[in-house]
Amino acid sequence: xxxxxxxxxxxxxxxxxxxxxxxxxxxxxxxxxxxxxxxxxxxxxxxxxxxxxxxxxxxxxxxxxxxxxxxxxxxxxxxxxxxxxxxxxxxxxxxxxxxxxxxxxxxxxxxxxxxxxxxxxxxxxxxxxxxxxxxxxxxxxxxxxxxxxxxxxxxxxxxxxxxxxxxxxxxxxxxxxxxxxxxxxxxxxxxxxxxxxxxxxxxxxxxxxxxxxxxxxxxxxxxxxxxxxxxxxxxxxxxxxxxxxxxxxxxxxxxxxxxxxxxxxxxxxxxxxxxxxxxxxxxxxxxxxxxxxxxxxxxxxxxxxxxxxxxxxxxxxxxxxxxxxxxxxxxxxxx
Amino acid sequence: xxxxxxxxxxxxxxxxxxxxxxxxxxxxxxxxxxxxxxxxxxxxxxxxxxxxxxxxxxxxxxxxxxxxxxxxxxxxxxxxxxxxxxxxxxxxxxxxxxxxxxxxxxxxxxxxxxxxxxxxxxxxxxxxxxxxxxxxxxxxxxxxxxxxxxxxxxxxxxxxxxxxxxxxxxxxxxxxxxxxxxxxxxxxxxxxxxxxxxxxxxxxxxxxxxxxxxxxxxxxxxxxxxxxxxxxxxxxxxxxxxxxxxxxxxxxxxxxxxxxxxxxxxxxxxxxxxxxxxxxxxxxxxxxxxxxxxxxxxxxxxxxxxxxxxxxxxxxxxxxxxxxxxxxxxxxxxxxxxxxxxxxxxxxxxxxxxxxxxxxxxxxxxxxxxxxxxxxxxxxxxxxxxxxxxxxxxxxxxxxxxxxxxxxxxxxxxxxxxxxxxxxxxxxxxxxxxxxxxxxxxxxxxxxxxxxxxxxxxxxxxxxxxxxxxxxxxxxxxxxxxxxxxxxxxxxxxxxxxxxxxxxxxxxxxxxxxxxxxxxxxxxxxxxxxxxxxxxxxxxxxxxxxxxxxxxxxxxxxxxxxxxxxxxxxxxxxxxxxxxxxxxxxxxxxxxxxxxxxxxxxxxxxxxxxxxxxxxxxxxxxxxxxxxxxxxxxxxxxxxxx
Lengths: 335, 642
Prior knowledge:
Helix content of chain B: 40-55%
Distance between the termini of chain B: 62 Å
GO biological process, one term (chain B): regulation of protein transport
CATH architecture of the domain at 155-266 and 545-640 in chain B: 3-Layer(aba) Sandwich
Keywords (chain B): Cytoplasm, Membrane, Protein transport, Transport
Largest interface: A-B, 57 and 62 residues
Organism (chain B): Myotis lucifugus (Little brown bat)
Mean pLDDT of chain B: 78
Membrane topology (chain B): Peripheral membrane protein
Oligomer: heterodimer
Mean pLDDT of chain A: 75
Largest sheet of chain B: 7 strands, mixed
């Protein structure tokens, strides 16, 4: 196990100090050492990069605290069984969602800015590596906090969907036998729906349509206080049929919903992978462009070389011809 | 009660886990490390020297360092630029040059705050040197914490450790056994070894009972270690073995047994040719600190005339505890390894095909009415396939790794006919009748390198009861020289044998039989890559090497002439005495075997096999340095020149 010898170190510092004083060796600053330290340290460039990075991190920390604080209310309010009234209205939840999103966007922009700045400033290799690692950490932190948020959101969306489904089904069961007015509720609910289940809506609309002739016959028969047994039987049969239809619809809808959730998850994974590949593809693109440039330049150089070669040959020929002419001339001159 | 359970579990925790935990705590500014998924990132810079690098590299990968928040990791003696606003964690040995460099860093004010961690305890005077430099640079408040980590040993496996890698020359077999060593040099060597062992026990958190053989270097180490442990225990205020720092050790009711043996009791094992995977890799390839370096020769195409010759690629692989295949098969005989790689490859291909099949199924989407129902299954399948992709990729990487390593090993085996050597040596060591004469093998030109022949002959020389006659010896020597061997190791072994004979009877190696199962036809039939034609499938029968036997005797408190006169030390007893009578009559549950002078994987594997047959018991194996046969022969050559 490790042994903490910091105290021992401080003791040795004291010993060395007293020894130095006894020997009369000046220790940089002496008694005013501490004050000098402060002065010495403040002009040192604090490095606004790291202070900015720390700012971003504290922002993200605030976001995280904010989300965690309201998380319980956010989720808890959905279970109607537990609490009589939701402590958070939907409007408040939407507000939270929006705030969180804008916050996350600003944070990621800030990180991007820092990255660009780090790129532009030329520093030694080590400092650069260090800075990019810091930015990676910050981004990872942001991603983790965003996951908190998206988890919450997913739960909320799921609960809303469940609630809507429940709300639709209950009135259905009771609508046929007693209040026709409740079918109005049914028709209202689908319209309120965020439009996630067009199939269900269609069917839901058909029901009010079907309910109309019922209403009609019902309305006609309203004068009579008693129903004939055949009509009761007919209504019961109709009931059963509608319940069966509703159940199958319900199942189908649930399946589709499950699939949609899965597909969205898959999409997330795929987008992640595609984004990862984007960087690689970019670099490959750069390499290819560079390679084509190099090849073009190479071609140019080869052409130059050929030309030079040809030119060289011409000169050699010329020289030889001149030499032979001069020889001939000298020979003629001499003879 | 929960604490007690944790304690009981930790008592058996491997030394690797403990060292990793200690390292992680150090990296976390010496505060216990707690994983928090929404924690704020804290960044730091890690500075180490070569010792620190050797300690950290088998335990933590670069990714794990990143996870701990380390942005940069640098060598102490490299050029480092000032990085303001970042705390720096130092992990160095307290040597003169390191201290000087650290003082320089303080003067240049490279970092914002300094967390100094010394691998082994720092002396008071050196601490004052740092204090002086800190004062001069007005940097005293910047030195945030100073710690003695007591981590001066390298853990390679869960239950195996080595003392050092950087200065193994200092504590090598040669250094300990050379005839011209002075007393002071010996003292230095012993002190180094004892320091590391002490750190080891501090990290393990237990005070062992020490037993060692008489009259050897091991005895010197035992005496010093006992003294050091005793001093530390007496000093109640600063003892490292009491209080919260100990934790788990208090809950284990049994103290471990430390068996200190000297390399000289068994010189045949380091020379032995081996047949298990890990030992083979260590023997044949370049393998140290869990990293194997392969030179891959590029393909066999003819290079066009005039072109530059293709460079051989150098590849290095890390064989880590995460690698499940390695953990399972590092002790298996080689043909088994080859077979398992094939199996893994096949299962991987099956999984790959599954994933590919999904592609074709997805093509049916929307065309079929039954597609909707199929779709729901397929999305589930697709999700699981996508999430299992990283696993598959990792598996493929491991399979590739092991295929390459095993192929390289196989090439060596085939080129040098190592299976023949292995079989022959086993026979020699177990004193069964030899079917081929030694001279034949030595004079055979295509069986093995000269070094292999030298090894074989040395093993023969070591294990025979009576020395061969002069004429025979001359014959052998001539054959060896013809084969190109250097005869110096033989010189040394002769001296050793003479000395060992005076001390005690040479150790016997027990009975063993090897059953060659002929050609490995099964492998060939499955069309494997590992065409092991001509390589015999040798089955290892359990045998106990001398070290294992000694351990067995001591652990089970058996009476045996070999171990009866071993010395007994108990640092916890008030009065130090040299009694050879053990006070404790119960068999030990935990034992640590330490070989002074060097060890190797063959012994390690043998110990592991031995302890597998005894559930509930644990063994740790350590040595002052880890060498393979080549290095050992080199050391013997140097020794033989005296």
